[in-house]
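Researcher: Let's continue the batch. This sequence belongs to ParB/Sulfiredoxin domain-containing protein, and it's 238 residues. Same format as the previous ones, please.
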Amino acid sequence: MTRRREKKAKQIEVVTVTDGLGVISVRGGPAGAVLSISGEPVAADTGDFRGSLGRLVTRHTPWPRDGDPHLVSEWAPVAEWGRMRDWLADPSPVERLTEPLAPLLALLEPGEYQLRTTELAWPNVIEVEPGEERGWYDHWDDWDRDVIVPTHRWPPPAPATALEYGRRIIEGRRPLTVAIRHSQFPGWFLLDGHHKLAAYLKRQLNPACIAIERFPPHGVRRDELPHWWPSFREIWEF
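Model: Same format as before. Here are the structure tokens for ParB/Sulfiredoxin domain-containing protein:
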């Protein structure tokens, strides 16, 4: 899979997560990625195994509700998570991104990650309902766009929240979304900021983003493989 052109990062650092809870895991190979939350595959973005441009996005769990273990905020202390969300909504300069993002980093699977502040380039949001799959063609003339797979309902369900973020954007503030991927595949999973993303898109602006990239790449565990993936594919590391 050819990589899209990288955007210049405003702030970048590398962190090794040694004692993460493993609530959030992103794994895959050159032809796809799986996002798992609390040990279960939630969404996947892969090649369709039929051609060089075909992509297939799937959603494997229902939309999360309060108390659902697939809602990552359920695994973090309420006060710490709230402070992080406040900073993302109205970010101020920090010496290290690991400071405000500590509650989220604590939920990652142990490994090495790159953190950076950047912008998502004219996101191509691929929405798919739980239990369904969506095939599409990643045309060459769209390869400068970032492909985003939402992890919550899309479009987001609270218009008033999106309007409030829109007001902040008009005022010149840049609330941060949070997206994750692994280093061998260009597709992003949106972990946080669905209403922010909607507000940016409405105003035709590239969304500000905390980009989390796991490297070196890690293969998909066999029990994470959706049933329609042939298990003999050499692209997957078990």
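Researcher: Any comment?
Model: DSSP finds four helices and twelve strands in the chain.
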